[in-house]
Amino acid sequence: MKRDHKMKKVFAVMLSLSLLLTAAMAFAEAPAVTEVHWSDLEATAAQFEGAFAPMADLGLQMYIPASLKQLEIPQEKVAEGVFLSLENEDKSIAVGGQVVKMDLKSFVDDATSKGGQGFKELRVNGMQCVNFNLTGANGSLVTNFAFSAGNGTATVLFSFTPAGAETADIFRVMAGSIQPVK
Predict the structure, then answer these.
(1) pLDDT tens, residue by residue, 102-154
(2) Residue 171: CB partners within 8 Å, gap ≥ 6?
(3) In angstroms, rounded to a whole number, what is the distance separating the alpha carbons of residues 52 and 62?
């Protein structure tokens, strides 16, 4: 009888250890959230003359290089939540912003179903964000930064195109500058 009791104890200890090991492995495999801080990008931003601008009534601001100009947004696009439309003079770079009435998880699920790829969790200046890529209508790569907003009931999406080596610095500066208005 004592032997059965000892076996039960040994089994219980082994079961506990295996559960702890499983939990530790799951934690170790969880993707790390990349931290992005404006202070780490200020030196790179110096090469793009510009200024911070508030983003509609969202309580956010973003560094806008002077080479990008705000386009007029048609009323039907405003009704769809579009609040930002920028282009450079030769129209080779475009940046857009839109509020989507969908929580961030649902938005990411929707983007995945529409071909979104390379999803990465970020924390941009302390704000939860998901970065991913899509192929645009003209075949160019669009990199997107989706932020949780509206107490979790909406998503603020910033899209940058064309994503690539030539635009990496300017887009990294702009996306990394998104932060609450101070």
Answers:
(1) 999 999 999 999 999 999 999 999 999 999 999 988 899 999 999 998 888 99
(2) 95, 143, 160, 163
(3) 5
Q: Domain segments of the chain: what residues?
A: 1-30, 34-180
Strand order in the sheet with 50-55: 50-55, 60-65, 179-180
Q: How many CB atoms lie within 10 A of CB 108?
A: 18
What distance in Å separates the CA atoms of residue 43 and residue 20, rounded to the nearest whole number?
Answer: 45
Summarised one tens digit per residue, pLDDT across range 9-23 is 433 333 333 333 333
pTM value is 0.81
Count Cβ atoms within 10 A of the Cβ of residue 181 and give its class: 0-12 exposed, 13-18 middle, 19 or more buried.
exposed
Percent of residues in the chain assigned helix, strand, coil, to nearest 5 = 35, 35, 30
Its CATH class, for the domain covering 34-180, is alpha beta
